Amino acid sequence: MPNREPAKADVLQGTLDLMVLQTLAALGPLHGYAIAARLEQVSGGSLQLNMGTLYPGLMRLEQRGLLRAKWGVTGNNRRARFYAITPAGRRQLATERSAWTRMTSIIDALLRDPA
Amino acid sequence: MAALREWLIRLWGTVRRQRTDEDLEQELRFHHDLAVEGTGRHTASGEDLEREAALRAGGIAHAMEHMRDQRGLPWLDDGVRDVRHALRLLRRNPVFAAIAIASLAVGVGANCAIFSLADELFLRPLPVRDAAAVMTISTDAGEDDAYDAMSYPNYLDLRDASQSFEGLVAYRISTVGFARAAGATRETHRGALVSDNFFRVLGVEPAIGRAFAPGEGLVPGRDAVVVLSDDFWRNTLGADPSILDDIVWMNGVAFHVIGVLPASFTGTEQPLRPAFYAPIAMAPRLGARLEGELARRDDRVYSVKGRLKPGVSKARARAELAGRWDALVREYPEANRHRTLNVRSELEERLREDPWDVVLMAIFSALAAVVLIIACANVANLMLGRARARAREMAVRLALGVSRGRLLRQLFTEAAVLAIAGFAAGIALAYAGIRFLQTIPTRDQIVIAPQLDERVLLFGVLVAAASAILFGLAPARQGLRTDLAPALKTSEPGDARTRIAGRHVLVVGQIAASMVLLVAIGMLLDGFRKAVVLDPGFRTDHLMLMTTDTALVQDTAAQTRAFYRELAERARALPGATAAALTSAVPFDLNAQEIEPIIPEGSQLPDGQESVSTPAAVVDERYFDTMRVRVAAGRGFTVDDRDGSRPVAIVNEELAKTYWPHQDPIGKRLRLAEGGSPWLEIVGVTQTGKYRWIAEGPTPFLYLPFSQHARTRMSLLVETAGADAAPIAAPLRDIVRTIDANQPVSNVQTFASLYHERTIAVPLMIMQTVGTIALLGLTLALIGLYGLVAYSVARRTREIGIRMAIGAGKSDVLAMVLREGLKLSIVGIAIGGVVSVWVARALTAALVGVGAPNPATYAVVPVVLIALTMAATYFPARRAARVDPLIALRQE
Description:
The complex is a heterodimer.
Chain A: H1 13-27, E1 30-31, H2 32-42, H3 51-63, E2 67-73, E3 79-85, H4 87-112
Antiparallel strand pairs in A: 1-3, 2-3
Helix pairs in contact in A: 1-3, 1-4
Chain B: H1 2-15, H2 21-38, H3 46-57, H4 60-71, H5 74-92, H6 94-123, E1 134-140, H7 152-161, E2 165-179, E3 187-194, H8 198-202, E4 208-209, E5 225-228, H9 230-235, E6 247-250, E7 253-260, E8 276-279, E9 303-308, H10 314-331, H11 333-336, E10 340-345, H12 346-353, H13 355-399, H14 404-437, H15 454-481, H16 484-489, H17 496-533, E11 543-549, H18 557-573, E12 577-583, E13 594-600, E14 612-619, H19 623-627, E15 631-634, E16 648-652, H20 653-659, E17 669-672, E18 679-686, E19 702-705, E20 713-720, H21 729-739, E21 745-750, H22 751-795, H23 797-805, H24 810-846, H25 855-881, H26 885-890
Parallel strand pairs in B: 3-8, 5-7, 14-19, 16-18
Antiparallel strand pairs in B: 1-9, 1-10, 2-3, 2-6, 2-9, 4-7, 5-8, 6-7, 11-20, 11-21, 12-20, 13-14, 13-17, 15-18, 16-19, 17-18
Helix pairs in contact in B: 2-3, 2-4, 5-14, 6-13, 6-14, 6-15, 6-22, 7-10, 13-15, 13-17, 13-22, 14-15, 17-22, 17-24, 17-25, 18-21, 22-25, 24-25
């Protein structure tokens, strides 16, 4: 195996939630693989989620009422479980997004400050 | 909020799967397939890429594990699985389950029932707000001085000086003639005379109406107000709501009913339930016991309790009050000297007040604890036996990487399941036991009613939990010690010798405990048998009893004398009556006892004591004849012992022997320590009888003539010609009514019934309780022995087969197994014998009258035990003797 895959194991729980919610809010209902593929694509391949991280995370969001899931059929006529964001999920996304922005700007300012 | 929702859903997910494992797997399989397909398997290195993609996506099994954990609550999942597993095991071994649960039920049940009684008698806190802060303040003449009450002026001085207490309250129990309406027949009821701040300091709010207003009940004789107890209001007054703000009559004085207390407030003198609460300041108007009683420093009749301020320790409060008390001793040495001030918690005070009951409860509790230990040994034994059978299972699981902690949890879950089942069954048994204990004979507002309440349930939970740890520990230790390699190789892992030795120790312990239990019950039975045939020193048949108190009708001293003279004369003249006598103290009636501090002339009293307290009775000149008390020397009282004639007294032989050993007591003198008494000359000596309790040791006793010592409360004893004294009750009541229609009578009963209650009924209950506990313990121990031998036979089937194959006969095998049981039982009996000598000594010291154990006890108990253990061993032994060598050898 080449170098250690970047960022794979280091996905913070809160960040994964934020990324999943954002993806579903932007693209509408998706199955798990599509979510993972989308995140890999957006990150330019640096974010590769294994199933053991992704699916328990999805289940947790579902249990918290932020996602809703149901079995459906893909374009290729295969059965897949589709996740959609709920209104509570959208509210949560808004909160977390602003929290994230605030946090990054703080960290940003901190890192820019030469002293 | 979302987190709570997640938790609830996961909790629910533990109980009911909302997604099945297949559902999870399908989703993961789909992901896996897409991941593999996405790599483009048609390229040259397709297979490598495919593998890499699969690796990147992670294993399905691994992801499944995480999802399962997320689906439910993993620890709860495990717990539920363990419980299911344990239940399955129990179902598979119904005999094991039944014996284990029944053993535990007996242990828990016996302990809960005994606890309910101890709780009722001692442990339950006072029914007041924040009871832990309420202390009892007393001034004691000595550590064993139970007559430690305080005078009202001393109480007031301490109350004013105290900084450590939120307040000090005083009260005493008083009997009054109570009538609902002015002319109605008066009935005697006991109530409390309490200080004005009583309800405020204790934090008791009436359920209806009000308590004393500030300042109310402070001025002597001013506020004739009364608060009724719920019990009295409901059961005697029929819960009549119109009584509030109405007038009731107590000793002929009109009292204004201002409130009714809640049912939860049962008073501060458990087990007595006072009927009413009136201000102490009203005591003089209710009938003065003494001239100016509220101002007398030597009238020590009030109990004092105080509520500590938050953060103040008992020791600090004591130090503070003791300082003030020392000043009071200096100021009023006549009344207060030789007394020290003590502050005690409620529990300390109760234990001190009633040492005999404490001893009894300690014995009960100890017996129940022994039964519990035997029960736990049984269950531990059963579980050890099973743990052996399961050692292989444990080893396999350990080898597969299950953590020892996880296995430990599983083993304790099994113990917990057993404990819960045992607890449930035990509570049912406890209920039966408590129903029995509720039949303790009580009367006159004394209520001893143990209940199966939340305190008992909580205690049961604790007992069950403790036993689960006790019996769960042994198999757990064994399960974890398991050496993997040998355990995996054979079905008989570990050093079997040490294993079985542990179980032998348990069974020997059980037999030893049974031995102790049987010796104890033997002693008590013996004591009971002796008690029944003991001579109390007076007649107990052909006697009718009736108590009156002239203070309740506010008679003067002269009126009192006239009343009792007329009462006795008329009673004697009744058809069917052959004699009648008066006494202030009735033998065996604990509500009518007197204690007099006396100073015997020329006798050296122990370490600096000025006086000694001795039980006493004020009697008339007919008492000794009527009660058939033998006057051993000198004379009885006569009509010539009058007020103004030479002061005389009569003592019993024990008192004479105690203070004037080897001397003729006739002509010796003694003085009452209080009230400026003159010297009394001893003119007669009676035989030593029993005064409070049939099994009591020889007790000094003093008789004083009624004509020289005024008493308002006297009991009339009428001897009847017929064996049944009961028919004379009605004419006796009529006599009292014709002499004074207002005079309430109480305690009307035949002396035989009082005597029966005290000598037969109460001891019989004690015997039944002790006997039941002991038998339960013995039965459990026998089950334990049976189980061990049966197990050992089953394990040695092969060995027995070999023995028989090489020529051992059935009787040899039978003897071999019986010998094994006999060995255990002899060792157990030997150990138990040694322990029971100690226990017997403790019992003899603790329970007066039980006496040293009859040597026969030590002869009979081992024989009985050996017979029983042989019987328990016989059945498995017979099974062993039936082993067919051919079948046995083919095993494994």
